[in-house]
Amino acid sequence: MPKLEIDGKPVEVPAGTNLIEAAKRLNIEIPHYCFHPGLSVVGSCRMCQVEVELNGRKSLVIGCNTAAADGMKVIINSDVVERTRRSVLEFYLQNHPLDCPICDDAGECDLQNYYMRYGLHDSRVELDEKRHKHKVHDVGPTVVLDSERCILCSRCARFCREIAGVDELGIFSHGGESELMNVPGKLLENDYAGNVVDLCPVGALTDKDFRFKRRVWYLQRTPSVCMGCSRGCNIYVDWETERSYKNPQRRIQRLKPRFNRLVNEWWMCDRGRYSYHAVDAENRLRTLRTKSDTDPHTTLDQILERAAAKIKTAISKHGAKSVAVLGSAHSSNEDLFLLKKLFAEHLKVQSMDVTLGKEPKGKEDEILMKADLAPNRRGALEIGVGPWSDSTISGDDILSGALDGDYEVLIVVGHDITRGLSAKEQAKLDQNCDYILYLGTHDNATCALADDVISIAMWAEREASYTNFQGRVQKTQQPFPPLGEALCEWRVWNELGKKLGFTVPYLNVDDVFDAIGGSIASFKGLTWEGLGAEGKMLTGVAEPPYRKVQSAHPLAAY
Amino acid sequence: MSGNGSVRLLSRHFGLPGQTHIETAMKRGAYEQFKRALKMKPEEVTALVKASGLRGHGGAGFSAGLKWSFVPKDVFPRYVTVNGDESEPGTCKDRLIFEYDPHLLIEGALICAWAVQAERVYIYIRGEYFYPARIMQTAIDEARAKGFIGDNILGSGWSCAVYLATGAGQYICGEETGLLESLEGKKGWPRLKPPFYPAAIGLWGKPTIVNNVETLAYVPRILEIGADKFLAMGTPKAGGPTLFSLSGCVKKPGVYELPTGVPLKTLIYEYGGGITENRKLKAVIPGGSSSHILTAEECEDLKLDFESVAAAGSMLGSAAVMVLDETISIPQLMVWMVRFYAHESCGQCTPCREGTGWLLRLATRIADGRGRKRDLDDLYELADNIDGKTVCALGAAVAWPTKSYIKKFRPEFEALIKQ
């Protein structure tokens, strides 16, 4: 482990660490553009040049391609370094359009930030002699390129080649005419295309989904977890609710990946990236609904009262087997835990599952995407509501049983059970089931079929924890309150339980989570606080191995 | 061609009829040294070349034998790459070797391949050399038919293939790692250094010897005359003669094979026949367009070897001597020079990509008489900001001439800038 000194502060780093990464450990930033820890080192931006003193020899090196060595003194703020940095920035600005006022990246642009911090404020930039290139070029269905803003760091091209495994972007022509472009005949349309926008240090690549929608300095950022599939990529929810003059319906403005070495590294897929539209979709359920009452002002209390009465009657008449619960693998650990507590343990309901055979499946690949689109099936398994739990009746059995009139009361969470059913079958279901309670987020045919509908909060509107396919328990935070009358699923079970003589002492999500830790073996030792930003593995589940980041160039031994 | 009294070692058979054909060339001794080398141990060949003091004629002047000995043990396959991407303005010597004595080059490359036990030789010719490429290809085919290339060469048990590769017309592919990238089928962008030596990590990550055409063409001659005799033909630190490409304002421009360390005045006045129309010497660019310019005073007693030229503040480089007489405008020369580098910048790293274009704008403005007072200082500072801060040496290649022109001929620039 080489010991070195950066900016006068000692630090010890593993062999092979470059100077940028070593400085990061001391919370010192060596400015850089082309370097990215997840990509190969090309050393082309020349921004990370620092002075290095070793064995009495002092020289200017690039931080990204220089490995930390024992006894090295890294000087990051000498006159030479500052002048070099300033000159690189000046070179960049020579041909940069300086259209910051209309650039989407303004506010989070590294060129802007570094120039403000290190640049030459008595500018020599000649505005009339700039080079002109492509301005609005569609590189793919989701991303737009402004070639004049591009600083040719090649991060995007390297991402496509090294991470997404496709050859879609490249730098063409040479010298001052160099330009980022699509590889001839190819569009930027891989499943991870959105990452190039995150990687772009300037406003050259912008996301069609976000461009011209909000200035980034109005955005608020909440760490969360992607609900797009069972991987549970760590993300940031960037949201803004106050400036509603544009897209008043839209609270989430974009999702950005959040680094987690063991789950998603620096990346996320486009399927997850644009999945947030569902949160602010027009067909979100905002109010409670009921069929059995003409009064439009149904309250939650009325619905729960009715549901409790129906359940009580059914059980007293036909036993617990006349009640079936179809939970959801999209629900959080807390939801599923209370679902199990109330129905399986208190009411002794046997017919309970979260999986339906006809649930949609997604694309799966070696990078991030999983075919299972539900974020918490592993959680359901561990808690004991899942398809592999003690329950011998599967979700599909419950549904066919309901069609045959086996159940008096059917409780459905999330699933659109009408999918794949003919109108005749739907009518049969309506007729054969005495009472259907539906808890959902979006309007669908099941809402119309159900006797009562309770709107529940979506992932971005609540705090909750989810268990990904690896067995990692991760928590989301709440950026903003639920739409309309929607509320968290576990609170519904809490309230319903009170009406059924089952009192649960939980006030908040952390109470519920800590209770899971106390009663489910694989959650033992986990606490809400302890989950932290990166989540924790279930007890007895090994952490997945690191994926090695490949570098095209071996690191320099200085 | 060579004038009276010049050395005729490498260029011995230049211009002789039929020299490009293997039969004729073999009658004159081609491939004899290769046959001898095959009977020697590879290390002996390397040791001989090291002892001869042969230094690279491509520009950097690195000891050839030393380079060959950098090849790591037990790493195979190994490659030899002949750098024939001769593109530095002023340099025109490799072309003559391609055109006049292709078999000498193939022989030299094969000896090198034997010395480092390479299994493949790539001869990389610049894209614009169509005619030389054709000659080389014919020569390679002939040598293959004779059994000098291929499997189990001359019963030695060693196999080596030789391939010809042409560039697409880019100066940067003459930079050795840019050349390797180009050979690998990629864009000719120079690689990051370190790793410094392709001899350790080169083509496809394998040990690769990259040598200039002229350097390798000297190798058969070293075997022929012996290391001591070869060393004696140059200076103690750089053995053998050098092909000087003499151009500019001289009566007889051309390529002259002379002992390394020949006085500049001898080259210009004796071989070059003196300055055009007997005008006054103003300056000399001694080692290709990227070297520092030397004023007439600085050239007075200059000897053309690596150390003497370096001591005078420039470099011998590829030994392309450009002579400038009193009628040459240095600011105009700078525009020409910078335009070349701005056009040839590969665009990989920022200072060179953005800086060369900016330099050109400033230089043009000054030469056109539209310069502003501060432009000259800006120009110098910009060149300094590029110098040594780039991936490859091309950044320095544009910075050095720019800086030295301004430093040494400042009044000329100032006269053009309106006060």
Explain what this protein looks like in three dimensions.
The complex is a heterodimer of chains A (558) and B (419). Chain A is α+β, with helices and mostly antiparallel strands. Chain A has helices at 19-25, 79-94, 110-118, 155-164, 195-199, 270-273, 300-318, 333-346, 377-383, 395-403, 423-432, 445-449, 489-499, 509-519, 528-531; strands spanning 3-6, 9-12, 49-54, 57-62, 73-75, 137-138, 143-145, 169-172, 179-182, 205-207, 220-225, 234-239, 252-257, 289-290, 323-326, 351-353, 409-413, 435-440, 452-455, 464-467, 472-476, 536-537. Chain A folds into 3 domains: 3-77, Ubiquitin-like (UB roll) (Roll), CATH 3.10.20.740; 92-207, Alpha-Beta Plaits (2-Layer Sandwich); 289-537, Rossmann fold (3-Layer(aba) Sandwich), CATH 3.40.50.740. In chain A, 25% of the residues lie in helices and 16% in strands. Chain B is an alpha/beta fold and 419 residues long. Chain B folds into 3 domains: 10-232, 3-Layer(aba) Sandwich (Rossmann fold), CATH 3.40.50.11540; 241-325, Ubiquitin-like (UB roll) (Roll), CATH 3.10.20; 330-418, NADH-ubiquinone oxidoreductase 51kDa subunit, iron-sulphur binding domain (de novo design (two linked rop proteins), Up-down Bundle), CATH 1.20.1440. In chain B, 43% of the residues lie in helices and 13% in strands. Chain B contains 18 helices and 11 strands. Chain B has helices at residues 22-27, 32-39, 42-52, 64-69, 93-100, 102-116, 130-145, 176-183, 213-225, 227-232, 264-271, 296-299, 306-311, 330-344, 350-367, 375-386, 394-408, 410-416; strands at 79-84, 120-125, 161-166, 208-212, 241-248, 254-259, 262-263, 281-285, 294-295, 303-304, 320-325. In chain B, helix 2 packs parallel to helix 6 (102-116) and helix 6 packs across helix 9. The model of chain B has no long low-confidence stretch (mean pLDDT 93). The interface between A and B is medium-sized, with 37 and 33 residues.
